TrEMBL record:
<feature type="domain" description="Peptidase M16 C-terminal">
    <location>
        <begin position="227"/>
        <end position="400"/>
    </location>
</feature>
<dbReference type="GO" id="GO:0046872">
    <property type="term" value="F:metal ion binding"/>
</dbReference>
<protein>
    <submittedName>
        <fullName>Peptidase, M16 (Pitrilysin) family</fullName>
        <ecNumber>3.4.24.-</ecNumber>
    </submittedName>
</protein>
<dbReference type="Pfam" id="PF00675">
    <property type="entry name" value="Peptidase_M16"/>
</dbReference>
<dbReference type="InterPro" id="IPR011249">
    <property type="entry name" value="Metalloenz_LuxS/M16"/>
</dbReference>
<feature type="signal peptide">
    <location>
        <begin position="1"/>
        <end position="37"/>
    </location>
</feature>
<keyword id="KW-0732">Signal</keyword>
<keyword id="KW-0378">Hydrolase</keyword>
<dbReference type="InterPro" id="IPR007863">
    <property type="entry name" value="Peptidase_M16_C"/>
</dbReference>
<comment type="similarity">
    <text>Belongs to the peptidase M16 family.</text>
</comment>
<dbReference type="InterPro" id="IPR011765">
    <property type="entry name" value="Pept_M16_N"/>
</dbReference>
<feature type="domain" description="Peptidase M16 N-terminal">
    <location>
        <begin position="87"/>
        <end position="215"/>
    </location>
</feature>
<dbReference type="Pfam" id="PF05193">
    <property type="entry name" value="Peptidase_M16_C"/>
</dbReference>
<dbReference type="InterPro" id="IPR050361">
    <property type="entry name" value="MPP/UQCRC_Complex"/>
</dbReference>
<dbReference type="GO" id="GO:0016787">
    <property type="term" value="F:hydrolase activity"/>
</dbReference>
């Protein structure tokens, strides 16, 4: 993630957990915005917020250019501004040992000069025209965002065409950005306990699939990318036929399509990237990892093998996680934070992607906390929902919060750009976005119980503890030793 202020940044490392999980919410606009709903404190939004929602999809048009670039336009002329989301279907799942972190690295390189606009010019020209920009990288995609007045349309198209076709991969710039990324890794992972534990749990949970790789990359790979690695990656994945452009705001489809044909259609397509063929084998038993670091308090994370963004259970899982951790009356908060006072906060996280990803349950603990006790409380509550399901009231509340946040997210051009792009990219058709409310309405209590049983299986779980390096707290291994 570039270190620039912008709406809805993708959190990195521990920030992915501690902030509002805005990246999850952007995907979950088609699969349930749990993360955004958490900012409402668990209180249902007034019914008027839902009834006042705009008619979904009005005026949207899409076109695929001759080079394979898809362009989708959602007009809204309330204010004279435009939002552009450029979705590239490349992330850490497209990497392999030796080049991990390269997708994230290109997020930096794409702002460092091309043929017409040299180093620093992309930002300078955009800001001179009243615009701003940023980008984020995930396991599945790299996304670039521009916000600008409609008067800057031609300039923005020129900037984007230049870096899509003629990015400068200069050795000096590469070395400079390598240092920036390494510094970012130290901040988000190496020097952050939540991020460090998350990285180790993910690498333990996946043994075959490239979701095991950290998005920011392993340290030795960051140090050793070669220029030819960058050139090959850019040519393969930064091709018009591997991207989707989403325009929302004060534009018409006709003018956007005309500008796209002028600036972007001449850029040649490339052979389609090789698909990711590796599938994660079924996990046959619980895995555990303990990280010892200098820390004031322990942490715990449970990661269960989950589902992909196209799975029919996405909506039921989204509502289940809301019931578990959304607000002060949620099950895990009430039990662990309010009643037992065993944790400072408890959360869940699921980011639907191209392939089955992890469902996280994690907690921040007070100094000296008994991690084994907290783990027992977490697994006990998860087992209870598997056995007994959820109540009508819990399901209704989760659905109300989720749908209210869905409508709110579509009130802004930025939210629409994120949602359309996520639906087109992960569902394969942006129109699937507009079916989301109906999909949530169809979820039953039995659906929620069944998805809980499907996900919260101890045989498919990886448990991670982070314990202070100088603490005497029992770890799973030390408990085994003591019992012998």
């Amino acid at each position: 993630m570039r270190r620039r202020p912008f709406p809805g940044a993708l959190p990195t490392g521990a920030r992915m957990f501690r902030q509002s999980l805005l990246w999850t919410s952007c995907l979950a606009l088609l699969a349930g915005p749990v993360a955004c709903a958490q900012t409402q404190g668990g209180k249902p939004v007034a019914k008027s917020a839902v009834s006042a929602a705009p008619k979904l999809g009005a005026g949207i048009e899409s076109r695929t250019l001759k080079n394979g670039l898809k362009v989708i336009v959602w007009p809204d002329h309330d204010i004279p501004n435009v939002v552009l989301y450029n979705w590239f279907r490349v992330g850490s799942r497209n990497e392999y040992p030796g080049i991990t972190g390269l997708s994230h690295f290109f997020e930096h390189m794409m702002f460092n000069g091309a043929k017409k606009y040299g180093p620093g010019e992309f930002d300078r020209v955009m800001e001179a025209n009243g615009g701003a920009n940023n980008a984020f990288t995930s396991e599945d995609v790299t996304v670039y965002m521009d916000w600008f007045p409609r008067s800057a349309l031609d300039v923005i198209f020129d900037l984007e065409a230049d870096r899509l076709q003629h990015l400068a991969i200069d050795p000096k710039v590469t070395e400079s950005e390598r240092g920036v990324v390494y510094s970012e890794r130290r901040s988000a992972i190496d020097n952050d306990n939540m991020g460090a534990l998350m990285e180790q749990v993910q690498a333990t949970a996946f043994v075959a699939h490239p979701y095991q790789f950290p998005v920011i990359g392993w340290p030795s790979d960051i140090e050793s990318w070669r220029i030819e690695d960058l050139q090959r990656y850019y040519k393969t994945y930064y091709a018009p036929n591997n991207a989707t452009l989403i325009f929302t705001g004060a534009v018409t489809p006709a003018e956007i399509f005309a500008l796209a044909e002028k600036y972007l259609e001449p850029i040649p397509s490339q052979p389609a990237p090789e698909p990711v063929r590796t599938k994660e084998p079924e996990q046959q038993g619980e895995r555990r990892i303990v990280v010892k670091k200098q820390a004031q308090a322990p942490l715990i994370q449970l990661a269960y093998h989950g589902i992909s963004g196209k799975d029919a259970d996405v909506e039921a899982l989204t509502l289940l996680l809301s019931i578990l951790t959304n607000g002060d009356s949620s099950r895990l908060h009430r039990r662990l934070v309010e009643e037992e006072r065993a944790a400072l906060r408890v959360n869940t996280h699921f980011s639907p992607g191209f392939d089955p990803s992890l469902v996280w349950v994690y907690a921040d603990l007070p100094p000296g906390a008994d991690v084994a006790k907290v783990e027992g409380l977490l697994t006990e509550e998860l087992a209870r929902v598997v056995k007994d399901g959820v109540s009508d009231a819990e399901l209704k509340k989760a659905r109300n919060i989720t749908l209210s946040q869905f409508w709110r997210s579509l009130e802004t051009n930025n939210g629409r750009g994120r949602a359309l792009g996520a639906a087109e990219t992960f569902r394969g058709d942006y129109r699937q976005l507009f079916d989301a409310p109906d999909r949530y309405e169809r979820v039953t209590r039995d659906d929620v119980r069944k998805v809980a049983a499907r996900i919260f299986n101890s045989q498919r779980r990886t448990v991670g503890w982070l314990v202070p390096a100088d603490a005497q707290a029992a770890t799973p291994d030390s408990r085994k030793e003591a019992s012998r």
